[in-house]
Design brief:
Elements lengths: L1 H12 L1 H21 L3 H11 L5 H12 L5 H30 L3 H20 L7 H7 L7 H24 L4 H23 L15 H27 L12 H6 L2 H12 L1 H8 L1 H21 L4 H28 L6 H29 L8 H18 L30
Length: 424
């Protein structure tokens, strides 16, 4: 929920300041998590760490503002795919940190990394100038659209809470039904408020402009497939072999099984610019969805050998390397330069919603098919097959994205001097 708010603040006060503030919140949350003596404080720490979701939109805004137009798509694609690399690296390192040193180092490490990165950002980025369009709009004294922020947060929280707790509370319980009913009402109210606000948190017109709505919808399924994969892999390989499936792996081994994902995300992301020039961002996004769904179907079919898991992880890496960068480029290409951070922040929000849905569907299937208190092999197969098939089918959404930008809109990005935008 902090992602669009911090993204918008970055466009108003400078992306360098917003990046440093975001990294500061991540560091503070990590330190609090490392020192937390109770579950309540640990939850507060995780809330603060959630601000890290704004790092990618802000970074993509920096890239768009400072990179020459010809190089921007490749740079944006690489930046977006580094999310997958970072996630995979974190999973790999968490095992040795937790088992070899102490669990609290799973929090100390990101605190150190965030603090060092904040210093690098301060030294490497020149003082940011506010984009002329934002300067003109900020003179009305309205600042951030807090009404829109509260309504968007309430809408997202209601949906995510209902999805996450549905199987525990009961899908027909008053709490879940109330949340599911309130979500569309709050969403409608949010749209109405944003349309009437002179400087909205999210320009709702940009959410569907020139096929952007189809990209956001495809991103929902991208998040669902990715989080389904990440939700199923650890418990499956942890399962003791005496149950007839699984590998009885420890935390470190589980993390190592994610290495192929990180390697291929980085390799494909680094080549993203060349791939896009050859086949286009639409084809990259469609191909990424097909491969991501295919990796889940492959896991459902082959999962009895270590190399089966590694092959599925590698396929996931290729898929995310293609899809992350393509989705970012497609939504940025139709957004004004002063709204880069907010449109990519919204794309991150819908990916999180899709992720919650994918993880919850997986959990619900595992619970429904459990035997003797343990998840069954059949449950893993069904969850992977169902979500995989849906993600593959979602590739058809890309057909709704026009092949050419609208008339009067640049192909990719506006020309860039390679420097932060000047004051009007």
């Amino acid at each position: 929920m902090a992602t669009p708010i911090l993204g918008r603040l970055g466009e108003r006060v400078g992306k360098d300041r917003a990046l440093i503030a975001t990294l500061g919140l991540l560091a503070a949350g990590s330190v609090l998590g490392a020192l937390a003596p109770s579950l309540a404080l640990l939850i507060v720490a995780r809330v603060l760490q959630g601000a890290a979701g704004a790092i990618l939109p802000l970074a993509l805004g920096v890239v768009r503002d400072t990179t020459p137009a010809a190089r921007a798509p490749g740079a944006i694609g690489l930046m977006a795919t580094l999310v997958g690399v970072g996630g995979g690296t974190g999973l790999v390192l968490s095992g040795p940190l937790a088992e070899g040193i102490a669990v609290r180092w799973v929090f100390w490490m990101p605190a150190i990394v965030a603090a060092v990165t904040a210093v690098i950002v301060r030294l490497a980025l020149p003082r940011w100038r506010i984009h002329p369009a934002m300067r003109a709009g900020s003179d009305n004294g309205r600042g951030v659209d807090w009404r829109g922020a509260v309504l968007l947060s309430a809408t997202s929280a209601g949906l995510l809470l209902a999805i996450s707790e549905g199987h525990a509370w009961g899908w027909t319980s008053p709490a879940v039904l109330g949340l599911l009913i309130a979500t569309p009402v709050l969403a409608t109210l949010w749209v109405a408020v944003e349309r009437r606000t002179p400087q909205p948190l999210i320009d709702v017109g940009l959410l569907h402009r020139h096929g952007a709505g189809a990209v956001h919808a495809a991103t929902v399924f991208l998040g669902a497939g990715m989080f389904c994969r990440f939700a199923l892999l650890p418990p499956f390989v942890h399962t003791p072999e005496r149950l007839g499936f699984g590998f009885g792996a420890d935390i470190t081994t589980t993390g190592l099984l994610m290495v192929p994902t990180s390697v291929f995300v980085l390799a494909v992301g680094a080549a993203g610019g060349r791939i896009e020039r050859r086949i286009g961002a639409r084809a990259m996004l469609a191909g990424g969805l097909v491969l991501l769904g295919g990796s889940l179907l492959l896991f459902a079919w082959l999962h009895t050998r270590w190399w089966h898991i590694a092959l599925s992880s590698a396929t996931t890496g290729v898929a995310l390397g293609l899809a992350f960068g393509a989705a970012a480029n497609l939504v940025i290409a139709v957004a004004p330069p002063d709204r880069t951070a907010t449109v990519t922040a919204m794309n991150a929000v819908v990916r999180s919603i899709g992720g919650a849905m994918g993880a919850q569907v997986s959990a619900a299937v595992l619970v429904a098919t459990a035997t003797a208190g343990h998840a069954s092999e059949r449950g893993y197969v069904i969850a992977s097959a169902v979500v995989g098939a849906v993600v593959v089918a979602a590739a058809a959404l890309v057909r709704l994205v026009p092949r050419q930008p609208p008339k009067g809109m640049p192909d990719r990005m506006p020309p860039s001097t390679g420097k932060p935008l000047p004051v009007a």
